[in-house]
Backbone:
């Protein structure tokens, strides 16, 4: 039995309904807008992180003067603001016109280029003062356009993953973390000066690390020595990688996120930044969103009920961790790489816009209330997030999974009861499992390689979240648990 107590543990802000939308330049395209429209309409996402893509904005005139064209940027930000999203803006995309090296470019994608044939310039600026000027002009522009009240509620950050060659100084060896950190520190100082010339109210942070811990001490020491503003620490936290999934050294396991956090926090606390806001501005069960089943067959979990259960367990795990992040943003990359519906890319929707279980899990989690309640459970494989809102309505997220999300748990029936008298109230159950709200499993059963229009319509319907039961609180609340299932129970007047 699972018992939801009347014990209110604490107020808890939602750190789990946020994402990185990639590629940024799909925001102005029909397919990108379709995704953003749906996420907004469903309330699945509160915060969207995008790159500022300075390479689309900054150029020089014939006399070498820096000039700015904000039109495409404004189209992107206007759309996101109109849809009600909070924003995290990663100041990045090194313009060739200020780069030290115009040949150090990477694709950071499955194809030979990024979206729309672009490449990422990994070079530092030829002069940090030029980077400062660009950061100043960009910040000034968005404050003038959207107002300081709105912009100061956003998070602005310097660059993306400067600790790895894919994004910064590709000409250096992969292990050259300290050398990269030294160059990045100059960029962060220039970024900090440029933004603060506009307003001290703007929330700024860095270093948006991928995973190389050796980078972090150099950065934090520099921030302290120069007394730079650092409102939050931006870090990436992935559970494993396609390579580790393939060789068995990194299986799917939520504990991997805590292990990575410990590595970060040991350094952060030692350097005296333990009280600084923590934002995981990218997370995922596995890194490499532009990899799919071609690189690692195990990435099929991105299509199935497993990722929904993983996500629910991540929420539960960080709620009970010593350090709770203010935001965790699921990285949606590889969205433009799809050529078939179910191939293991890291996104919410398939090629034919069929909702995946992970997307529906985000919708379920968005219904959680602001009061975290207590729960009594007698099964170590059941993970429960019980909440209550200001109106007194309950929303309880629950998942059933083993340590490595294998098919090694027996099917069982479980009863959920509430210490509070809920008789006469309406109980609604939602479920994601192998047979419910699971388009991939339905597709798998058909044995069809290329679905026709009729099957696509059927798969879309299967992906539409709907209740599996509606009953009165007087009746027992019984759940049929199978490996890697996820439930949401709501109790309303």
Residues:
């Amino acid at each position: 039995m699972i018992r939801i107590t009347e014990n209110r543990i604490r107020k808890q802000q939602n750190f789990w309904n946020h994402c990185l939308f990639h590629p940024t330049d799909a925001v102005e395209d029909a397919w990108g807008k379709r995704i953003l429209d749906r996420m907004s309409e469903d309330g699945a996402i509160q915060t969207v992180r995008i790159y500022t893509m300075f390479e689309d904005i900054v150029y020089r005139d014939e006399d070498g003067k820096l000039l700015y064209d904000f039109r495409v940027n404004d189209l992107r930000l206007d759309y996101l603001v109109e849809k009600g999203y909070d924003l995290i803006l990663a100041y990045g995309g090194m313009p060739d016109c200020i780069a030290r090296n115009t040949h150090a470019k990477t694709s950071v994608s499955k194809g030979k280029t990024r979206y729309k044939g672009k490449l990422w310039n990994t070079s530092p600026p030829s002069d940090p003062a030029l980077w400062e000027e660009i950061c100043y002009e960009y910040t000034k522009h968005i404050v003038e356009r959207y107002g300081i009240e709105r912009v100061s509620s956003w998070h602005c950050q310097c660059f993306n993953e400067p600790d790895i060659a894919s994004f910064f100084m590709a000409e250096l060896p992969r292990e050259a973390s300290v050398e990269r950190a030294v160059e990045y520190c100059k960029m962060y100082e220039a970024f900090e000066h440029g933004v603060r010339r506009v307003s001290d109210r703007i929330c700024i942070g860095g270093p948006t690390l991928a995973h190389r811990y050796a980078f972090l001490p150099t950065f934090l020491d520099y921030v302290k020595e120069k007394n730079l503003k650092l409102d939050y620490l931006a870090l990436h936290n992935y559970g494993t990688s396609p390579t580790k999934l393939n060789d068995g050294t990194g299986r799917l396991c939520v504990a991997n996120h805590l292990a990575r956090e410990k590595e970060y926090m040991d350094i952060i606390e030692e350097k005296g930044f333990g009280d600084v806001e923590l934002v995981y501005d990218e997370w995922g069960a596995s890194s490499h969103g532009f990899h799919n089943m071609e690189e690692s067959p195990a990435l099929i979990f991105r299509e199935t009920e497993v990722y929904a259960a993983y996500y629910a367990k991540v929420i539960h795990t960080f709620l009970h961790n010593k350090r709770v992040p203010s935001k965790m943003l699921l990285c949606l990359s590889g969205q433009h790489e799809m050529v078939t519906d179910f191939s293991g890319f890291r996104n919410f929707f398939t090629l034919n816009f069929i909702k995946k279980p992970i997307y529906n899990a985000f919708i379920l989690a968005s219904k959680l209330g602001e009061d975290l309640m207590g729960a009594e459970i007698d099964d170590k494989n059941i993970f429960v997030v019980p909440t209550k809102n200001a109106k007194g309505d309950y929303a309880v997220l629950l998942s059933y999974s083993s340590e490595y999300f294998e098919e090694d748990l027996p099917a069982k029936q479980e009863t959920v009861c509430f210490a509070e008298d809920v008789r006469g109230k309406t109980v609604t159950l939602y479920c994601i499992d192998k047979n419910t709200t699971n388009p991939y499993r339905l597709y798998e059963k058909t044995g069809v390689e290329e679905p026709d229009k009729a099957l696509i319509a059927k798969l879309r319907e299967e992906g539409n979240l709907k209740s599996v039961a509606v009953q009165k609180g007087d009746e027992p609340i019984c759940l049929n648990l199978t490996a890697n299932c996820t439930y949401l129970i709501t109790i309303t007047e």
